[in-house]
Task: structure prediction
Amino acid sequence: MILTAQGSSGEAPSLSRKMAQTLALEAGFSEAGVTAVPQDTAERDAERFEQWVRAGKAGTMQYLKRTEEGTGEGRMIRSRIGLAFPWAKSAIVCFSNYESGQPRSINPAAEGTGWIARYAWSSRRDASGVQRPSDYHKVLKKRLQVIEARMRVKLGEFEARGFVDTGPVVERSIATAAGIGWTGKNTCLIHPKLGSFGFLAVLLTSLPVEEETAQLKPLPDRCGTCTRCLDACPTGALIAPYQMDARRCIAYLTIEHRDVIEPELMEGMGRQVFGCDICQDVCPWNRKAPIGSDAELLPRTELVNPALEWLAEMDEETFEKHFNGSPVRRAGFNGLRRNLAIAIANSGAHSSIDWLRKWQQSTDAGLRTAAQWALARLQQKDGTSRSE
Ligand code: B12
Ligand code: SF4
Ligand code: SF4
Result:
């Protein structure tokens, strides 16, 4: 690989898109771009972000709300990169394709099966060939470290910080500015060739961006007149094009929200037990997206359309055995059972009714409320089918 510092001799090294792409592909990513920081759209996006949070759309995701003073007043830390990282002059944004060619959540599926979001199916084979759960946070973070180390060898010392999902930055805003894709009406970052089933990883650096790269324009929005995602969202979380109310989003409810789920949203949650792919599964830009061949993000096929009963039977030890090291663990044992109770009722899976009876006695309010709702729903369904 040829990696050269940009600019003539004596000049400080700078970053180019080509350099970032070469390094990123070598580290195992599918695509990469570069933007100067703050990006041209930084102020607009910061305002959008703050308005979104202040309107309550972030629900209980407190980590998004942190402000400069920590009092709830003032600018929100993650709205502007410069607040937490005043030294940052550029961002390398990397994209890892996780499309695996497995069925979509919207395809017909066997009775009594649920849905786990495809991003959480990931696994890798260990040295002895055994398939182990993998988590994109760890996988991608390591790749950023590889990029950073190679840059240091060639360019010398500079400041850098890598983030995958959990850092205080709005990754899709930076990714759009770096020319990776556009923000779809479903709010996802869509790459024109790879679609939206891709993770983002960001490496902030103190290096300036090389002139030619700085002149690159962001990609145009190609959603056109399409509204498939808005029409398909079963809980009305996409309240307008490009605007989500996370409090209604099944991904938020099943992964991030720790407490009682509003019963009025439970029916719309359908059979989703962890995350939701519907607004991406209907997106035409994901139809022809190539299948990724990432050895660290291999799909665990037992998690594709999993039997609800199999998940319901798991005790805490089995849950840990299957999901330690997997993104699914974030829901927690009781959180997953809460989601399962809802999916069981929506699927009419009577064979799991004993689990619901047990769970309605739980001291966990989220699980108890979901199980009570689920039992009532199954009874109601029975009544309806008998009277038909
Ligand atoms: C909080 C969060 C969530 C929340 C809220 C999602 C949301 N839409 O805001 C919940 C839990 C619901 C969620 C769900 C999912 N998430 Co999430 N999430 C995040 C996180 C941590 C922060 C996002 C955030 O700041 N949201 C606040 C809003 C305001 O910001 P935003 O959505 O990025 O908004 C931008 C655009 O929408 C745009 N915008 C806003 N208003 C307007 C108006 C107009 C007119 C226009 C043009 C644009 C525009 O500007 C904003 C700033 O640039 C990021 C990681 C990160 N650190 O950024 C991952 C991240 C966004 N999530 C990711 C993933 C994979 C998912 C899921 C697919 C998981 C799943 N299958 O269940 C779903 C997708 C749901 C969806 N349709 O977005 C990926 C997305 C990759 C991609 N290709 O887009 C990220 C980047 C994580 C990663 N490192 O890969 N997520
Ligand atoms: S992830 Fe599911 S619930 Fe959330 S906006 Fe998309 S379709 Fe709606
Ligand atoms: S479904 Fe249509 S409107 Fe929604 S993100 Fe995809 S192309 Fe855009």
Remarks:
- The chain has a mean pLDDT of 94.
- The two ends are 70 Å apart (CA to CA).
- The pocket of iron/sulfur cluster (ligand 3) is lined by residues 184-186, 223, 226-229, 282-285 (CB under 6 Å).
